[in-house]
């Protein structure tokens, strides 16, 4: 094709394209008229088709893509790289007052240590008080003898700070009737915010306790420990149906009739803990099917008069128990454990510590029937031998096993335990017949999280180093 014919093609093509292409032009420093715009289009088309034109021209991308060009030829959008977030440099003093830094900094401390940190300055206190996550698991303990000397306005400020931090538990130690009434008057908001009340080693009487219970309308957990001024009649008056957890420990006036009050007045009770030397089997007969549907946790500590007949009352009235403790109930025998194993098959935790009449036969019943058991405590069961440990080793669901001061366990029994792949917590504290060779075999328990070997004559410094080397994820307690 001659240059003249090529120029004619270019002119015709440019005339057609000039009607359809919008927004194309040459970047110049001067303002162009409509004539110059058409000539610039001509020039660009000439450059495209004939390869000519000035090299100083720069193409500006159109605001909208041309409808004549296929979409596959469109240039991909250019994304700007994200700029990394960077805090401006702060001095040390500024950093210690920066709320974003402090909110993460305080997470490295325990709740108890945060109590001290809150006293450093107002800014630290405000940051700590603003979030309730810093105070989870803490309970305020008021030593009432010392607290009486604090001015009333200071006491009110303390109670106000409890609400800011989300405290819902309160423990009174050494409280009197006057202290109980002062709490009611000084802390009116406790009626809606206190859910747990613990009264320990106090001389509070029936009337003061009843006033407290009437004031604390949101209360559903109550603990009375060492409160010898409270009578059974007073207990009857303070047990509101909203209570779901009750703990009675070392209260001299708590006997069978008090347990009867609990069974009759607390239909929604889920957890009941009782430590009373003179409670008998008759007390456990007060429970009825009314509690059988709700009561899941029963802990009897040092109830010396409870026998296998009491166990019969438990298994008949409370078939849905998941946690049962008979610690220190020294009259319980293997027959009582057989009743438990046959009738309470939902148990996940069983405590038979300080029950000296328990033998290997009881462990056979447990291994055969309690297939969901996850925790078993046999501290001071001095008649348990390696044979009983062999029974326990067949329990696939067992995760925690406590054998403190079981004086007849030998290395042979440990060989059985080494096959329990789900065992995570094991205590062999005070077992005198275990040797270093037997204890070293525990490295086979790769999933172990905690191992207690205090007061074990066979445990040496070399053994502890060996165990920590081969069980790096396990806490070995010396």
TrEMBL record:
InterPro entries: FBXL15_LRR, Leu-rich_rpt_Cys-con_subtyp, LRR_dom_sf. SUPFAM superfamilies: RNI-like (SSF52047). Residues 319-391 form the F-box/LRR-repeat protein 15-like leucin rich repeat domain. Gene3D superfamilies: Ribonuclease Inhibitor. This is F-box/LRR-repeat protein 15-like leucin rich repeat domain-containing protein. It comes from Hypothenemus hampei. The lineage of its organism: Eukaryota, Metazoa, Ecdysozoa, Arthropoda, Hexapoda.
């Amino acid at each position: 094709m001659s240059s003249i014919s090529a120029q004619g093609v270019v002119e015709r093509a440019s005339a057609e394209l000039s009607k359809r292409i919008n927004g194309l032009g040459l970047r110049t420093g001067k303002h162009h008229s409509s004539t110059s715009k058409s000539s610039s289009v001509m020039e660009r088309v000439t450059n495209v088709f004939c390869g000519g034109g000035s090299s100083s021209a720069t193409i500006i991308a159109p605001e909208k893509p041309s409808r004549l060009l296929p979409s596959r030829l469109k240039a991909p959008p250019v994304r700007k790289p994200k700029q990394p977030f960077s805090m401006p440099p702060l001095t040390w003093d500024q950093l210690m007052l920066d709320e974003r830094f402090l909110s993460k900094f305080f997470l490295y401390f325990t709740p108890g240590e945060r109590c001290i940190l809150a006293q450093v300055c107002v800014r630290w206190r405000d940051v700590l008080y603003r979030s309730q996550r810093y105070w989870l698991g803490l309970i305020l303990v008021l030593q009432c003898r010392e607290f009486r000397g604090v001015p009333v306005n200071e006491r009110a400020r303390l109670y106000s700070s409890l609400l800011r931090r989300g405290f819902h538990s309160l423990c009174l130690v050494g409280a009197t009737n006057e202290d109980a009434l002062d709490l009611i008057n000084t802390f009116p908001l406790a009626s809606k915010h206190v859910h747990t009340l613990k009264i320990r080693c106090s001389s509070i009487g029936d009337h003061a306790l009843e006033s407290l219970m009437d004031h604390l309308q949101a209360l559903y957990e109550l603990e009375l420990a060492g409160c010898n001024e409270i009578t059974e009649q007073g207990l009857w008056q303070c047990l509101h149906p909203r209570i779901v957890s009750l703990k009675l420990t070392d209260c001299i006036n708590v006997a069978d009739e008090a347990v009867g009050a609990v069974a009759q007045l607390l239909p929604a009770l889920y957890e009941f803990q009782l430590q009373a030397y003179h409670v008998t089997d008759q007390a456990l007969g007060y429970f009825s099917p009314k509690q059988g549907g709700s009561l899941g946790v029963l802990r009897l500590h040092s109830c010396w008069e409870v026998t296998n007949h009491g166990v019969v009352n438990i298994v008949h009235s409370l078939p849905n128990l998941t946690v049962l403790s008979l610690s220190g109930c020294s009259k319980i025998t293997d027959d009582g454990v057989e009743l438990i194993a046959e009738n309470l098959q939902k148990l996940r935790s069983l405590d038979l510590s300080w029950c000296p009449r328990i033998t290997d036969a009881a462990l056979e019943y447990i291994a055969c029937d309690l297939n969901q058991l996850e925790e078993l405590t046999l501290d001071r069961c001095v008649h348990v031998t390696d044979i009983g440990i062999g029974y326990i080793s067949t329990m696939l669901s067992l995760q925690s096993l406590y054998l403190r001061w079981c004086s007849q366990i030998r290395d042979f029994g440990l060989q059985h335990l080494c096959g329990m792949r789900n065992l995570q917590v094991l205590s062999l504290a005070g077992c005198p017949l275990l040797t270093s060779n037997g204890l070293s075999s525990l490295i086979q328990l790769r999933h172990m999280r905690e191992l207690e070997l205090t007061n074990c004559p066979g445990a040496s410094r070399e053994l502890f180093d060996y165990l920590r080397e081969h069980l790096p994820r396990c806490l070995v307690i010396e």
